[in-house]
Design goal:
The protein is globular and about 70 Å long. A six-stranded mixed sheet has the order 7-8-9-10-12-11. A three-stranded parallel sheet has the order 1-2-3, with no helix packed on it. The protein folds into two domains: 2-72, no CATH class; 92-342, no CATH class. It has 15 helices and twelve strands. It is α/β, with parallel strands linked by helices. The longest helix has 22 residues, at 231-252. It has helices at residues 8-16, 19-26, 45-56, 68-72, 92-95, 101-107, 111-114, 119-136, 144-156, 164-171, 175-187, 216-221, 231-252, 299-303, 334-342, and strands at 2-5, 33-37, 59-62, 160-161, 191-194, 210-213, 258-262, 272-278, 281-287, 310-317, 323-324, 330-333.
Length: 348
């Protein structure tokens, strides 16, 4: 297996003469594996990847942190010849007994941060590296200081519905600029939008998506804090961690086809954080950051009880006993919920 990291001298050499890449591939035996990291920095290499897949049946692993440059360059995207896979922050299954929920909520689960002996400093450095390497180096925005000022505001929307017009007004930028900034955060894999579920109920569902960062540490550091958790942070951070956990297993283990949230218009305080869809079946999940179960946590799950295809309703909370309410709602501590996702036992 060969590997190539497109950085430093290799980047300059291939930028000056992309033919060097073809020369290296030509020297490999048929059927070998080749790993290319940071492929978005030299998108024209994909033409050679395509050619050597066909000519020498080489197998490629192409890694990168953003497809934005590839898409805009209208390069060869290997349609029909490549599978897309995402690498997410750590999940509890990967860390085993080392997993600590409080530490994960404070610093996040990015491997480079989790393995560091100075997590706060490493997290801050990672945020700066993102601005320098991903945004400035790839020229994704014209106004880097403006984008840097936008990031703390985007972090405040973690776990909230995001209205582009409102966020543009609060940021003091044009709506198109705000929309572009949000797209950049998604396409560089730091954030994702969760759409509203549209069901055939007698109420009108909200249409705005909810906004999540892929990691609680990133959401915090973009607000320029790595200090111990404040009580007012816990709700959004815990909900975001549950969202990211479901999202990771959706891609790793295909535990559901799609995920949404549900909240009827005109009914303040009624919401279901996540609806997992598998075929015609649904599972409703509510994330609550309190350590002691309260029955009023279930009001959203009870409001959605008549949704067609609903198989199970679950409350996830940080730690405590496994319980079931009288009307059949499962109450699961975070670790148990993570174990059910990992073993695909959620639907059983």
């Amino acid at each position: 297996m060969g590997s190539l990291n497109i950085g430093g001298g290799i980047y300059q050499r291939l930028l000056a003469n992309p033919g060097h890449f073809a020369s290296e591939l030509r020297s490999l035996a048929t059927g070998r594996w080749v790993i290319v990291d940071e492929v978005q920095r030299l998108p024209n290499l994909l033409n050679e990847v395509h050619r050597f897949i066909e000519e020498k049946r080489l197998h490629f692993v192409l890694c990168g942190s953003s497809a934005r440059k590839l898409k805009r360059a209208s390069v060869n995207l290997l349609a029909g010849r490549a599978l897309h896979r995402s690498m997410h922050p750590f999940v509890p299954e990967e860390l085993g007994v080392q997993f600590d929920l409080e530490e994960a909520l404070q610093f996040g689960l990015l491997p480079i941060v989790w393995d560091s002996t100075a997590k706060g400093e490493t997290l801050s450095a990672y945020a700066q590296l993102y601005l320098k390497e991903e945004i400035q180096a790839e020229a994704l925005v014209r106004n880097l200081p403006g984008f840097a000022r936008f990031l703390p505001l985007a972090a405040l929307f973690h776990g909230r519905m995001v209205n582009v017009s409102n966020i543009a007004r609060e940021a003091g930028v044009a709506r198109t600029t705000a929309a572009g900034y949000l797209d950049i955060l998604e396409e560089t894999l730091l954030c994702f939008r969760l759409p509203a579920y549209e069901a055939r109920l007698r109420v009108r569902e909200r249409k705005l998506p909810k906004w999540y960062w892929c990691d609680p540490g990133l959401a915090r550091v973009m607000k320029r804090t790595t200090a111990p958790l404040a009580p007012e942070e816990r709700g959004a951070l815990f909900e975001g961690m549950v969202a990211q956990l479901i999202r990771a297993y959706k891609e790793y283990r295909f535990i559901c086809d799609d995920m949404y949230y549900w909240a009827p218009s005109g009914r303040s305080g009624i919401e279901v954080d996540f609806l997992l869809v598998r075929g015609a079946n649904l599972i409703a999940v509510e994330a609550k950051s309190g350590n002691t179960f309260r029955d009023d946590w279930c009001k959203g799950l009870r409001a959605v009880a008549q949704l067609e295809g609903l198989q199970r309703r679950i409350v996830v909370y940080p730690d405590g006993p496994v319980m079931k309410t009288q009307d059949g709602i499962d109450v699961l501590p975070f670790r148990r919920f993570a174990e059910e996702l990992a073993s695909d036992a959620l639907w059983k």
